[in-house]
Amino acid sequence: xxxxxxxxxxxxxxxxxxxxxxxxxxxxxxxxxxxxxxxxxxxxxxxxxxxxxxxxxxxxxxxxxxxxxxxxxxxxxxxxxxxxxxxxxxxxxxxxxxxxxxxxxxxxxxxxxxxxxxxxxxxxxxxxxxxxxxxxxxxxxxxxxxxxxxxxxxxxx
Length: 157
Ligand SMILES: [Fe+2]
Prior knowledge:
By secondary structure, the chain is mainly alpha-helical. It contains six helices and no strands. The mean pLDDT is 91. Bound molecules: fe (ii) ion.
């Protein structure tokens, strides 16, 4: 059974963002499996993908908010930055030989649930409006076409 299951309540109504949040949840589940099976090599590898992916996701989100002219972009960026600092603190502890995987995973989960349901839902309307102006429907977002594809490719290579 998966450790964390996506729920409709997490949806911000923007398919491309929802899909990225789902991917983060998949990584967290994979990480949990590695921990349950005490596969520390796998855990290390997944943790690094998870962190990389999350950082790319933040940058991607910031670009969407910027394109949409979202007025709360700067405060939202600050929230991302403070979380990146928190991740760096975990990385440092890990380099010092501390076992941080489980704790980081738990924090990431709690933080994301909170962030998705509050901060991310706040940019929803302006970003949807911007995507509609560019005629990027939910289906097009999922198919990863056009303007959005270029943006996805910029951050997720
Ligand atoms: Fe965000």
